[in-house]
Amino acid sequence: MKQEKLESILDTAKKMFARYGLRKTSMDEIAHMARVAKATIYNYFGSKDKVYMEVLRQEASEIVEKISSSVAKESLPTDKLVAFARAKFRYMRKAMNLLNLDREGVEKLLPTAKDIRNKLFDQEVNIISSILKEGVQKGTFHINDILLAAKAIAHALRGFELNWLIQESEERIDHYLDELMNLLFYGLMSKERKIEV
């Protein structure tokens, strides 16, 4: 019974925080919608901020798990990198609380929120690094500094998150990702004009 209550609280809180934000969501509303006593929430978490942090942790964990699963289904490094980018945007779109961090300025109020976001970024960089390393080993990619390249790709994708996920359809995002991957794999210059690095 305890696990069911905990899941109900977190599921309810996730939806309410996503819809109304941290500031406008009250513990009374979460308790009412989750059909538990407010004291129960305080017993489990201690504060509304801690409920919010747990929601963020769950969203980040789900994203990493689903991205990793999508990447694992592919065999070629190029396909793995494309799967990473598509999965990141597909599942990030569902993680509204993580997406709303920047817009709400929550990271300034709760430094732990920024830590969760940064940990997610580091996990994404690790996944990209492993893909790039495999690609270099197989001769698919030519990269001088794998970690730097992984961070650059992760930063580029993160830079697009808010605009693409809030303003664009899934079809448009897929089109943008196709163009981005094309640029990443083939560069800007034609074959005849390539400069050796």
From TrEMBL:
Residues 3-63 form the HTH tetR-type domain. One of its GO terms (molecular function) is transcription cis-regulatory region binding. The keyword Transcription applies. SUPFAM superfamilies: Homeodomain-like, Tetracyclin repressor-like, C-terminal domain. It comes from the Bacteria. InterPro entries: DNA-bd_HTH_TetR-type_CS, Homeodomain-like_sf, HTH-type_TetR-like_transc_reg, HTH_TetR, Tet_transcr_reg_TetR-rel_C_sf, TetR_C_27. Keywords: DNA-binding, Transcription, Transcription regulation. Gene3D superfamilies: Homeodomain-like (1.10.10.60), Tetracycline Repressor, domain 2 (1.10.357.10). Residues 26-45 bind DNA. This is TetR/AcrR family transcriptional regulator. The lineage of its organism: Bacteria, Candidatus Aerophobota.
